[in-house]
Design goal:
By secondary structure, the chain is an all-alpha fold. It has three helices and no strands.
Length: about 130
């Protein structure tokens, strides 16, 4: 009898071999949970990948803009008051009005993003 015969090993992966009844009952009983977890995990993963790419693109544009501005400042074409720019950015981003960008500000923005991403999703565990 050849080694690849399905009769030689019941765990050979042969689709015609008898399934383990314990495993089948386990899969049947947890099917809704597995389907929800798989869908929400997949959506969370895809969202994270796209957010990472968008974040990198935004950082590249901001960095390039800074380099161009500094080049123009160096050549004397324009003057930039970086203290005033910093104050404007902090005032726009600071959510707790303490004059600094702190961990609490980041948490506030993260909660806003999660609220948007989890809106009307039956099981949003992938966004946790």
């Amino acid at each position: 009898m050849p080694l690849w015969s399905s009769n030689s090993n019941p765990n050979s992966g042969d689709p015609n071999a008898d399934d383990d009844p314990n495993f089948s009952s386990l899969i049947t009983s947890y099917r809704p949970l597995i389907q929800k977890l798989s869908f929400s995990s997949f959506m969370g993963y895809c969202s994270a990948l796209s957010a990472k790419r968008v974040g990198k693109s935004i950082a590249a544009v901001i960095g390039l803009g800074f380099v161009v501005l500094q080049g123009l400042v160096h050549k004397g074409f324009i003057e930039v008051d970086w203290k005033k720019v910093e104050k404007s950015v902090v005032d726009a981003v600071d959510t707790d009005n303490d004059g600094e960008i702190t961990e609490q500000d980041i948490r506030t923005y993260w909660e806003k993003v999660k609220k948007i991403l989890m809106n009307n999703i039956p099981d949003a565990s992938g966004f946790g």
